[in-house]
Amino acid sequence: MASDLIVARPEGLYCPPGDFYIDPWRPVARAVITHAHSDHARFGHEHYLCAEPGRGVLLARLPGITLDTLPYGQRISHHGVTLSLHPAGHVLGSAQVRLEHGGQVWVASGDYKVEDDGTCEPFEPVRCDTFITESTFGLPIYRWQDQPTLMAEIFRWWQSNAAAGRASVLYCYAFGKAQRILHGMLRHAGADLAMPGPIIVHGAMTGLNRAYAEAGVALAPTMTVADLPARSPALHRALVVAPPSAQRSTWLRRFGAEAIDAFASGWMQLRGTRRRRGVDRGFALSDHADWPGLLQAIGATGAQRVIVTHGNVPVMVRYLAEQGLDAQSFKTEFGDVDDVQDSGGDGAAPAEAEAEAPR
Ligand SMILES: [Zn+2]
Ligand SMILES: [Zn+2]
């Protein structure tokens, strides 16, 4: 419709009256960024706007950009469009973009999760006429266990491996997932910080961990391998948090051939994924809403019109249409880099699952 507040253009999602883009994938003059994952935040735009808590992680990913930030909930006006950013609960600084113009309210949610994970502002339902949603895990088979239960499982897995003198190598995405695990281990250990061994993080994670710590997020104490002598027995009790790209790397050898490994990702809910990744254990931990979470979030907006951007698009569009909503889709270039399905090595990598986090 001519009055639509957001339309799909070859460069990205565009607001015609405001003349700016949301998470554009080609270079533009003005980009509003929902969050710093690499498929939503790219180099090359002249001017960036993101939520204030996302400043540190966005600059860690895209150093040198021209960036303005906005506190959650604060309204600004641009070419007569009222814009505000609201927590999306996905990763630190993640935001839904609320636009109001000509009596209409639109919300573009970026990626989101409805469960509060303690490492970012929890998802805030925002009333709107039109809601733009992701659908990464938009199939009824996706139902997450709650975070405390998952963290307790990871902790117990680490404990039993350590008792057997074997390191626990946990692969996860370096931005978002890694910090949730560090926060979860801290919470689970309780006040006396009784851990089965040291937590060793891969170098790809230290910059982002610092950005989270500077934003006031409580993380378990960590070290890098350089902090321990080469033959330290502590290496065999360690929880090793590493990006998937470290799998089968020489970096891992120092933890011994008998190390146990696991993968943390929403895709681990599918049994075949764990086997394809060649790991001993899978934990279905995701930064995205599961099927009930997506439906809960969509319902809470009160929107009569819903536009689906990425993930299981046809399934979600059909389901929402059956519920009587005006449902459609936008073709976008957003992928699932944050819940890496397969990042190479076994030839099963989907095209959008690009490289791991920042160097
Ligand atoms: Zn994301
Ligand atoms: Zn996404």
From TrEMBL:
Gene Ontology molecular functions: RNA endonuclease activity
Identification of the protein by name: Putative mRNA 3-end processing factor
InterPro entries with a match to the protein in the record: MBL (IPR050698), RibonucZ/Hydroxyglut_hydro (IPR036866), Xnuc_lig_assoc (IPR026360)
Coiled-coil residues: none
Disordered: annotated span: 333-359
SUPFAM superfamilies in the record: Metallo-hydrolase/oxidoreductase
